[in-house]
Every structure is written in structure tokens, then in C-alpha cells.
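Narrative of activities, Objective 1.

The group set out to show that a structural description can be obtained from nothing but a protein's sequence at a throughput compatible with the screening campaign. Below is one input-output pair from the validation batch, recorded exactly as produced.
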Amino acid sequence: MMHYAKGTAHAALGHVPAAQAEQALFADAVKRVPKSRYLHNVPCLQLLAVAEEMLAGEIAYRGGENDAAFARLRAAIALEDDLPYDEPWGWMQPVRHALGALLLEQDHTAEAEAVYREDLGLGGALPRAQIHPDNLWALRGLLECLQRRGETAEAALICQRVDFAAVRADMPVSVSCLCARGKAA
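Output recorded for this entry:
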């Protein structure tokens, strides 16, 4: 996971060769994880598969391969959604936050809005165990989508939810993912 974390950090900073080097180290490390290794009730290889797709998506995006990046992030979401129920969640960084932020960066506002709504449980397709209600990161993303399309009534309601969630946060959150270029607080 250290190689995954370093790789996504390098990618977010635009250091693609360094991110790719960490990606290679990550792949080598994954080969050494036994199938019998679990984190609570989640097989570690299942968690690492989410990380693999997310890292590949972040690197592809910073390499200018947006379609490939979005495909990899969508694949990571499918893997994340397929994780067995666990408390706390086996995968702590919702992939939808990154996908939504990068879609917004490319002005795919409608799809980003759908991604955030699903993450918050407002889309209706995910079971309760897979959603993150009132998650500040997703609320920020949804609010930005609503503002971009000029939706004021719902934006006012979501803004209230953002304010309530922000009070409980341990850091200021101005974007749905710190991978958003030049937008982080």
C-alpha cells in the first residue's frame, strides 16, 4: 500500500515517471501477498486490485490518457463495490471521489454529478453498505456540479449539508479529491 500511496501522490503532482516506478514496485509487492491474507473479512488481494486500478487510472490521467484513466477508475469502482461488507470499510478512499473530481476537471459535469450522487446514496443503485452519506468530499463535488449547471435550489440545500459536514471534519475540504489540479485547500 505504501507503493500505491506514493504512486498516487506522484501522479497527483504530475510526476508521471516517479508514479510509474512506484506502480512497478507495487505490482512486484502484490505478487508476494498470499491468497490467505485478509484484512478483517476482506481478502487483501481484493483490496490491492482496487488499488491497482485506481493507481493506473491516476497515472493514465496525468499522462493525458483521459479515456483510459476514466475506464480504469470505473473498473476500480466496480471492484470497490464488490468488496465484502466490513466495518470499517476495507477500502477507505472512495474511488468515486477521484473519478468525480477528474470528470469535473474535464467538464463532464453530468457524469460527475451522477458519480457523487451514487456515492452519497442519492442515486439509488448501491446498497447501504456501499454508500457514504453526508461525506464532505462527495458533498463538495456534488455542490460544484450543481453550481456549474446553475441549479440554485438544490445547491442551497447541499450547501447546508456541506456546512454541517465541514464542522465535523478534521481538515478544511474544498474539493472532492486532492487529486484535483490546483484546487485543494
